[in-house]
Specification:
homotetramer; alpha/beta; Rossmann fold; N-(1-d-carboxylethyl)-l-norvaline Dehydrogenase, domain 2; 2 domains; six-stranded parallel β-sheet; three-stranded mixed β-sheet; globular; disordered N terminus
Chain lengths: 341, 341, 341, 341
């Protein structure tokens, strides 16, 4: 049981409740601004980005922000307890013109390439010397290396710093950052990343952050479907789901998906599976990450039979109405029709 | 790191080192026999069974044993610090004639059917009234239910009690038992099972122990190949294996296979992957368990795409020279040829 | 092109049009009964069985029939141009009491076991000496061997004779029969089977007919999903479906599924894909056959990675609303949502 | 049987024997050169390319050739019955400087990009106005479109024209060409392609030739493994391989792999499986083509579960000693160890 209790605790602060380390959350209505902290550029205020930006503000940073959605910018500009600590501008170039340290959090490779390299409006068109660019998007490692090459031509540095952990980890500053870049750049970036996350790991040169993210999410994507199959099969064989989960979690079948994010409704409280698979990490996003894993595997000639099958299953789910549901809806996808309805 | 340190500790006593709870191991040369303990029948003294039987003896039980291998019987008969505490006989029937409480640990369904039902030599041909039969083999749940039906015709009871944990868990009395049977039978069996294992879980009626075992091992078999793919891909992408393992184990990719039984040589000490995949849980055995999972899934019409693919991969490994290696050799199977040699 | 023209011709008589060999079809309103022909027993008048029985009648056989559905019996009893040539009875035993030569066409293993072995009502409870039992159901080869063993105890013979070809091949007497049994039994059975089909192949001893059927349908199930993937991918890459089919059919991608049963709507006329996947061979039936293939593969320790995945995909389709559609609806299952609706 | 006889005939001229249409082969020792025929550039004289080039020469074309291997160039320069009809040069640029019509046959995307775009030595650095570039390599459709774009900047045209059919089809001028390009360019190219192949199909705009090739080879790769599984399973179930092949080829399991290229040794003469999988189409090449299919599927968000699994199986074979064997060695890969040796 020990490991089960521990699991659900970890689960609690990892995903929903307030973590001890996050007590500053209770200060939302009275953030103190230590004027000593740098003003940072932040581009990309989506489901993840807006939480990450808020945590920087709560910690006392001022931000110059850009997002294609004016609403997204307005929302954070007006966040409670923050006066004049967020300035909105009209392009990535405008951010680069005002800030030497910029964090980007974007959906996919092509968005990163556009935000960084667009003529006139991209970061590189207005970048200052000795800037530090921190890209937390999950993209093709090769694209990260391209951006790093251009940055160094501009006498600046770039690190790839993709995250592990979903929307709630972003909100609770409980993310894990996997960082690829030169040691000095990593040190600089770490100062900001540690404000938004709990673990900041230096993985090696530029691109290895993406590599680590891709490998983690491939294994996660595999384990989640595997857990869904095991829970569904066990239920059909007459096992009570909570009991089966307990057995798996104290045995060799134990994994993050069975322990803290179980896909079977009713086994754990507060996870997407107990909320009709609303919230969490969308199936379309998992499909995208597994697409990156497949490309990387093809380029490096690495066999990934399970990773490829997982990719295809999420792909079919995405084209069958599960795109917007949490990826743990693999459980629902595998269920009998009557169970589904 | 916290969870990593914890992981390797758990790993240590789960797999190799001496566990605090197993300090009686140090008494091998001076086991005390409390004459109060029942004499038990034990059939099947293979890699797992001989360790389980020894733990019963160490705790003070006398045993009447049978195995098709005379050597296996002789070895335990002559175990150090045990005088006249093990009696060998010539058939399962002979065991049943002398003992009312019998534990069986056999390779597969057909062996269980033979040991229990053979005319003249099987358990049922000499069973006494009110006997308790505890089968720890991993077999088809339907076969367990057949045995239970015959047992009750003989005014006796039967429980299926398959185990989780390998040879070392058997040696260290650290097994998990998943038990299917009537509550009263479970209580009786629990007394003996707790001597041989750390967790004894009541899963429901006869057959649910097998169901739990099948579901756990299916998920284990999936996670192990998934972990092998992630470790191999990461290495090819330039990540240092120990670092990648650390990242997975503090992120959502974490699973038993990555944490305590990592398939990549050099990441953990004392696991099969660091011993050329010698010892541990053979690929042929995992293939057999996944065959049971596939049959159960077909009968219950449960989709198990990842479980089926895992079954097929271990099947190919089994017919390609990996049958006797630990199932974590999936990592080696997926590697490039030069890396293999 | 040559092979394409040939393909569609073959397609025509294989599935829909009248084949030269089937000109007796035109006699539906005036069947001549050559009194010389034996009266046969026929059990199982479903989608396939009723067509097979009709062809026997058209050829001049009288039948004693049984089906669990009284309507099914009435329908054939009242078929046009047939007076007093079909007698309905109340059980398989009644059939066996009147006929020495009996053909059975049933859904699955358990139905065959019931029809043959039920006490009092089963075939074996009233079988006459020197009877010939011809089972055209697709079942577990091991079950066929059991039936054969009981038959020989009754001084009778049994052959397994599963079919290839769908409802239309049954209607047009264009089936292929794969027969397992002793040479003498095969010769006797062949006389009747050739009335219902175009190819009657002796595969070897009892059980090999099922083996051949299982292997054929496994490959068919694989090719159909593969063809669906190729057609869907090609369409997304800008290829016109009819052109792509033509290319595949004149190249090494050619298979029965691409040539005569293309799953992409509009490529061929008169196939299920051009009829909203109505008619043809149901996904649930293909799933059942692939379940038999998986069991046989597990028992013989044969790796079937593609066969297992195909099984799982049809399994998921079956539990997602495709159970009653033709198995070529795999194409629809893989399509984008908008394309689906 | 009909279709079987037909199959083996087709097989004969498609793969090994002399086809009636190829009687010009008998003229090897006395090729007539109609001086009217254009001099063509030819780049890439590998297993496929050297046969294609020879057929152009046999038909009366003079060639200006380049290959990275001097031996490859010398061999064709010295081909029997050809005096001064082949000129060798030092770079693709030299070819382009002398010829307006150039055919390229290269291993992979990067080689095509190098041969066409290298500064100073590439085709584009010396291309003449109104040139026609015909690339028969199998590459990423996107790369074909890039080449076409550059060609049109140089007032020239480009078509992608990948082939179906192996080394023997190349030798016997029995290839199928799948061509993507503008109608006018197609017409020009067709004149030369029809000399080297039997079918020349216009698939649509630039890139669709590659798309057709990718779809065909994906289905071929799937069917070959499926056929291997069916043949291996059938053999284990007691079926005689030649009989099983006959049954499949007259039933719905029929495919090119079962009919004309059966992977089971001894079923057909003259195919790689009857020659220890020597010759034919290497597993590494099939793996490469399936990698292209996977990339195209990811880009177009098309699910290809079977295609992905086939990719992974050939990938594992490639890293397990099968890289240089014909891809039908999938049969051997799936066999039991004893059967293998």
């Amino acid at each position: 049981m020990a490991s089960l209790r521990k699991a659900s605790t970890r689960f609690n602060h990892l995903l929903w409740q307030q973590s001890p380390k996050c007590s500053n959350l209770s200060l939302v209505n009275g953030v103190k601004h230590m004027s000593s902290l740098e003003t940072l550029g932040f581009i990309g205020l989506g489901n993840m980005g807006n939480h990450m930006a808020r945590n920087l503000v709560k910690k006392g940073h001022k931000l110059v922000v850009f997002d294609v959605s004016k609403n997204a910018m307005k929302t954070i500009e007006n966040m409670e307890g923050c006066e004049n600590c967020v300035q909105t501008v009209n392009s990535p170039a405008d951010v680069a013109a005002q800030c030497k340290h910029i964090i980007t959090m974007l959906p996919a490779t092509q968005h990163v390439q556009e935000v960084y390299t667009s003529r006139g409006t991209g970061i590189f068109s207005a970048i200052q010397e000795n800037s530090l660019l921190v890209d937390s998007s999950t993209i093709d490692p090769a694209a990260s290396q391209e951006m790093a090459a251009i940055a160094s031509e501009k006498d600046s540095s770039y690190v790839d710093a993709p995250v592990s952990g979903g929307v709630n980890a972003a909100r609770d500053a409980a993310l894990t950052f996997m960082v690829g870049g030169a040691p000095k750049s990593f040190e600089m970036a770490q100062k900001y990343l540690s404000v938004m996350g709990r673990n900041v790991v230096h993985c090696g040169p530029v691109g290895t952050g993406q590599a680590a993210k891709i490998c983690n999410n491939m294994l996660l994507g595999i384990s989640m479907i595997g857990t869904s199959e095991a829970m569904n099969l066990g239920k059909k064989l007459g096992l009570e789901p909570k009991l089966l989960a307990k057995i798996l979690n104290t045995s060799s079948g134990r994994c993050w998906s069975s322990e803290v994010y179980n896909p079977c409704p009713g086994v754990l409280d507060g996870v997407p599976s107990s909320n009709n698979y609303y919230g969490g990490f969308g199936t379309a996003l998992m499909t995208k990450d597994l697409g990156l894993a497949n490309n990387a595997a093809t380029v490096t000639k690495s066999p990934i039979p399970m990773g490829s099958l997982a990719h295809q299953i999420y792909r079919i789910m995405t084209s069958s109405g599960y795109a917007g549901k949490d990826f743990s809806s693999a459980y629902k996808f595998l269920q009998d029709q009557e169970d589904k309805s």
